[in-house]
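Ops channel
N.P.: pipeline sanity check, posting one input/output pair.
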């Protein structure tokens, strides 16, 4: 555990920055499960509305001052040094206060890379500056996707102010700013650059005419880890001895005095010794989500466990524990903080047969999809989030994406949206390009590689193709014939797919991709919060001195991860990290 701050050699590259992709499964039955549990257990809730977290919370650690071998103090403490914690550190430092930061991993971490931004100078480069998008319209879309279980002021503050915070972040990121989605980047900048998604926009996509639009508001960092590191270094340079960062240090218990959070007990994972860290102004929890904690998933989103959804996480501390185990939410709950009721697991389907880059063979494209019974079961012209929800309802939680040799001409008509293959290229793009940047691009070689590796099946006849699948072949052939008739007629009278994406399966060779359920990347559910990053008790009174940001901050997402604003999770993490830093520094 370092006792001083240095510029660390951090993990570079798109692999670390691009692990998290947007998505979630349906969480609507979580409330039903909790209601049933409440009916069975008289103690499931108290008269003041406090929830019973006994199935996952456990006993608060018995740690006292006497257990600590070291004491530290600062104006602001930040727990978690990642997408939200780093902006919090820098924002607080710039207010002239002293900051203590703790991270249980051995260095700073980062997830994602896509960022939604409404207006501002950077977006103006792409014709998407101020006035192009109405924040109120976007807020309504976000509320609908969340079944109105999120707080609109949180969204509105982000929508109105993120443009300025984003410029603040980019100015220190060291990222080269591209002119277009696939601009040539100077060699010296190829390890850290910023690019817009879908600029220029595809001629065939008009988000204003889509039932489930994906707004062109998103940019991407080729290496968010590098951008965060540079922001952290700026804070280090400005703060001097006002900033201390401890790595391999796990916060385990908040210190409360007269209802106020005054600090935190932290365990040094390298020595096992405890540190008492006190804060004059407050503690910011930026500890991430809880998707590696099965007990918490069982309580808040039981359908993910019931459906056998697998989780993925790459950051583990020196004791081998995933760093997203819900420790921040537990500490908050022990201190009396309320946790939001409706959570949104991120299980965005990216298509079947994913390769090493995480891209599905042909994305989540809405060609013909059949289940194991050989039946078409949905309007396939939906985003990956809604697609995942439907796959979870099928026999064996499995489906097949069926398309034919006309795919190169058809790609351009699919939505310019996250996880969709909608750009065709004869040749591969340069190797230095970030994999997330290429998520919408497919080449003939991409498909051939998928066939060669068995991730995509192909045949010259439909009978031969269907014989290779775990499917009722007779019913499947009838479904394909019927679907082709709908395509020829130009109207999907079964499920209402847009005629723009009704493509018959009739030209050999034919292809099929097996699509199982997607992985859960994070679960969006945190401590009840507001647009100032305050936390609240069971009576929704502000808990003085305790703030939350990133995935520890609740009331931003609910029911499912939204698809209308690609990169909203990382964007809100960056933004509300900044807000938390400013709020805590002011002691408000």
């Amino acid at each position: 555990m370092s006792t001083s701050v240095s510029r660390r050699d951090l993990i570079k590259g798109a692999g670390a920055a691009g692990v998290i992709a947007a998505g979630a499964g349906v969480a609507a039955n979580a409330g039903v499960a909790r209601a049933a549990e409440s009916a069975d257990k008289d103690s499931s809730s108290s008269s003041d509305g406090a929830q019973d977290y006994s199935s996952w919370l456990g006993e608060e650690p018995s740690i006292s001052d006497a257990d600590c071998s070291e004491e530290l103090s600062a104006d602001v403490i930040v727990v978690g040094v990642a997408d939200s914690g780093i902006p919090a550190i820098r924002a607080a430092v710039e207010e002239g206060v002293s900051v203590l930061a703790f991270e249980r991993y051995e260095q700073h971490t980062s997830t994602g890379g896509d960022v939604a931004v409404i207006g501002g100078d950077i977006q103006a480069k792409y014709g998407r500056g101020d006035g192009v998008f109405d924040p109120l319209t976007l807020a309504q879309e976000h509320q609908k996707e969340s079944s109105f279980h999120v707080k609109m002021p949180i969204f509105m503050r982000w929508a109105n102010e993120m443009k300025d915070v984003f410029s603040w972040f980019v100015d220190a990121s060291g990222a080269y700013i591209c002119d277009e989605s696939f601009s040539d980047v100077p060699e010296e900048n190829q390890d850290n650059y910023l690019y817009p998604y879908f600029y220029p926009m595809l001629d065939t996509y008009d988000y204003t005419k889509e039932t489930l639009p994906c707004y062109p508001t998103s940019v991407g960092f080729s290496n968010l880890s590098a951008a965060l590191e540079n922001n952290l270094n700026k804070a280090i340079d400005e703060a001097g001895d006002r900033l201390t960062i401890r790595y391999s240090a796990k916060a385990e218990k908040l210190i409360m005095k007269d209802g106020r959070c005054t600090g935190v007990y932290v365990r040094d994972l390298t020595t096992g010794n405890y540190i008492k860290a006190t804060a004059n102004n407050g503690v910011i929890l930026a500890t991430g989500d809880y998707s590696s904690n099965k007990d918490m998933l069982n309580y808040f989103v039981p359908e993910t466990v019931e459906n056998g959804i697998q989780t993925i996480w790459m950051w583990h501390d020196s004791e081998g524990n995933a760093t997203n185990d819900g420790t921040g939410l537990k500490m908050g709950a022990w201190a009396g903080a309320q946790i939001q009721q409706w959570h949104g697991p991120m299980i965005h389907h990216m298509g079947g047969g994913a390769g090493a880059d995480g891209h599905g063979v042909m994305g989540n494209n809405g060609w013909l999809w059949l289940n194991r019974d050989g039946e078409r079961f949905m309007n396939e012209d939906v985003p990956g989030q809604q697609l995942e929800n439907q796959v979870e309802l099928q026999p064996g939680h499995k489906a097949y994406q069926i398309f034919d040799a006309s795919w190169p001409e058809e790609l351009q008509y699919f939505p310019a949206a996250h996880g969709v293959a909608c750009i065709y290229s004869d040749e591969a793009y340069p190797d230095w390009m970030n994999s997330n940047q290429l998520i919408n691009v497919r080449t003939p070689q991409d498909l051939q590689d998928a066939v060669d590796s068995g991730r995509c099946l192909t045949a010259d006849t439909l009978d031969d193709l269907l014989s290779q699948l775990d499917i009722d072949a007779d019913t499947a052939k009838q479904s394909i014939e019927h679907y082709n008739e709908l395509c020829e007629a130009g109207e999907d009278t079964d499920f209402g797919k847009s005629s723009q994406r009704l493509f018959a399966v009739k030209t050999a060779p034919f292809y099929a991709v097996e699509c199982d359920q997607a992985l859960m990347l994070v679960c969006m559910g945190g401590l009840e919060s507001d647009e100032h990053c305050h936390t609240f008790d069971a009576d929704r009174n502000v808990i003085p001195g305790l703030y939350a940001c990133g995935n520890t901050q609740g009331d931003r997402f609910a029911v499912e991860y939204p698809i209308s604003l690609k990169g909203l999770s990382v964007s809100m993490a960056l933004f509300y990290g900044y807000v938390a830093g400013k709020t805590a520094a002011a002691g408000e």
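N.P.: looks fine end to end. The longest strand covers residues 68-79.
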